[in-house]
Every structure is written in structure tokens, then in C-alpha cells.
Write a structure and sequence with these properties.
The protein is mainly β. Helices cover about 5% and strands about 55% of the residues. The chain has two domains: about 1-80; about 85-304. Mean pLDDT is about 80; it is low at about 1-5, about 10-25, about 80-85 and about 95-100.
């Protein structure tokens, strides 16, 4: 950064001339292995600094600094490379942490429902305990890159999604004749708790944009798709035996949950806190192997 500052200071007289009508609106300077591009458009002065890497007869340019200056505001950015890979700041020393402008890595929790579509409740949704049906997101890896000179950022990464879907106390998810079905207990013999659990590895592709809102804060929105690969699933019931002792049983059988699927995801918020809404356009269970259900989740997310 000191080298960049020295270059700009060295070129201040030239910058002043470039802003005047005596020179063209776009001007390029070369200094050692740096290239400085100055452009002016609609009272906005843009200064970009590139590192020039000589390789035979070709020259590769990597942007390392950009400044946008107007009468009302100034924006400065540093680039270590044209592609940036980051890990959650909680794993970095405090002195190395920075404010993130990409939002995937973090922890979130939301209320999950299993309707059959946007407009009607499915067979499984009607027997859920919605107050206890939750989705947990633990997103650990995040990579991002700026899309050209636009205000849009592409985001990819990886994470884990845990789903704990609770049913009414007289219902359970079981497997009969290789098909997943909803069963009902006899009156007076209800379960203490009945839960369907499934876990995915998640791989997002999101596009994000954000705006400064003053006092060092920014508002962001992003949207895209999240590919999901199932890693585990189970159906369990909790009940009391004849002596009143609490028991737990894992119901046997392959639950026929779709092994590969995807979510449509939208997120928004301020700085490191926001909300998310997701919807799975494919059935939770394989075709003709279980009840009709598409997952929809609304929740809050804390970004690392």
C-alpha cells in the first residue's frame, strides 16, 4: 500500500492536469512496473493502478488499487489479486480481520416448512410441529470475485445444512415396503417427540450487490442457487415405556430422501447481520417414494 500511495503522490501534478479539459478524459501513465489509468466521466474521477508482469512479448495486468472520487464521496479499494479467497474472520487474528463485502460464510437458523408448493399445503406439512421445525446453516468456506467494474460480486463456497423437522406427537415418518409414509399412533399412546432429520453439504453460487449507508455500514442483497448433497438422514421417536422411563428409538429403513437437490436462496441485511429465505423446487423425497413436500425456510444469519 505504501508503494501505491507513493505512486499517486508522485503523479499528483499529472492527475490534476488529467482532470482539466486540456487533456483527454482517459489518460494512462507507466511508472516502473505499474500502470496508472485515469478516467473522468460525469464529474467522477476514477484512478486504477495495475501491476505489469512482463512475460516474453506479452504483458499481464493485475489491478491492485482503485479510487473513485466525486465532490460528494470517495471510494478506495485494494486488490491482492483478481480472484479473492477468504476464510471466516473468526479463524483469523484480530489484526488481520477486515469488513467483508461478500455474505455466505456464517451461522444461521430459520423456521422450516414442508409445503407441496407455494400455494397449497402438502401432505407432510399438515402434520408438522412448525414451532420446533428448524434449519441450521453452518457455512465455513467462502470465495468471491468482483464482476468486472460493476458493483456485483460472485460468490461460491461450501457449508453444512442441518434440518430438524418435528412432527405432531401422534405422527412419525416410517418406511413400509420400501416407501416412506406417515404413520399415526393409537389414541392415548402418543410419542413424547417425533423428528425427521437430514443433513446436506451445500455449495452456493450467488450474485451480490451492496451500498454504503454511512457511518462505515453497508446494506447488501444477494441471490442465487445452492446445490445440496445429502450426507445423513434419520427418523426418531421419543416415548415413555410402561414404567414411565424415557426411551428413544431410531426407526429403521432407507428414508428415500433425494440425494442431490438444490435451494433457491435470497439474502439481505446490514453489515454482518441479515435474513435469508430459501425454497427447494424439488420434492424432498424421491419420485413416488414418499409424501409430497418442498422445503421453504425463513430465518436469520450472522456472517463471519
Amino acid at each position: 500500500m505504501k508503494k501505491i500511495t507513493s505512486i499517486i503522490a508522485f503523479l499528483l501534478p499529472a492527475l490534476y492536469m488529467a482532470a482539466s479539459p486540456l487533456l483527454p478524459a482517459d489518460t494512462t501513465f507507466h511508472y516502473n512496473n505499474r500502470k496508472v489509468v485515469i478516467s473522468e466521466n460525469d464529474n467522477e474521477l476514477n484512478i486504477s493502478v495495475y501491476h505489469r508482469n512482463e512475460q516474453g512479448d506479452t504483458v499481464q495486468n493485475h489491478k491492485i488499487y482503485e479510487g473513485i472520487f466525486t465532490e460528494e464521496r470517495s471510494i478506495e479499494r485494494r486488490y491482492e489479486n483478481s480472484f479473492e479467497i477468504s476464510i471466516p474472520d473468526i479463524f483469523k487474528p484480530k489484526k488481520d480481520r477486515r469488513a467483508s463485502r461478500a455474505h455466505w460464510a456464517g451461522f444461521g437458523v430459520g423456521f422450516a416448512n414442508l409445503p407441496e408448493g407455494f400455494d397449497s399445503d402438502g401432505e407432510l406439512a399438515s402434520v408438522l410441529n412448525l414451532n420446533r421445525s428448524l434449519q441450521y446453516n453452518l457455512n465455513l468456506i467462502e470465495s468471491s470475485w468482483r464482476m468486472g467494474n460493476s458493483n456485483f460480486t460472485g460468490i461460491v463456497g461450501a457449508g453444512i445444512q442441518f434440518n430438524a423437522i418435528h412432527l405432531q406427537s401422534n405422527k412419525a415418518i416410517e418406511v413400509e415396503d420400501y416407501r416412506t409414509v406417515i404413520t399415526t399412533t393409537i389414541p392415548g399412546d402418543e410419542y413424547r417427540k417425533s423428528r425427521l432429520h437430514y443433513t446436506y453439504l451445500t455449495f452456493p453460487f450467488l450474485i451480490e450487490t451492496n451500498w454504503n449507508i454511512g457511518r462505515g455500514s453497508h446494506f447488501f442483497i444477494n441471490a442465487g442457487v445452492v446445490g445440496k448433497v445429502k450426507t445423513a438422514s434419520s427418523s426418531k421417536i421419543w416415548w415413555n415405556d410402561e414404567n414411565g422411563k424415557k426411551q428413544k428409538t431410531k426407526l429403521p429403513g432407507e428414508l428415500n430422501i433425494r440425494p442431490v437437490t438444490l435451494d433457491l436462496l435470497a439474502q439481505g441485511g446490514v453489515n454482518d447481520f441479515g435474513f435469508f429465505i430459501s425454497y427447494t423446487p424439488f420434492d424432498l423425497f424421491r419420485d413416488n417414494k414418499g409424501p409430497k413436500a418442498n422445503q421453504a425456510t425463513l430465518g436469520l444469519q450472522l456472517y463471519f
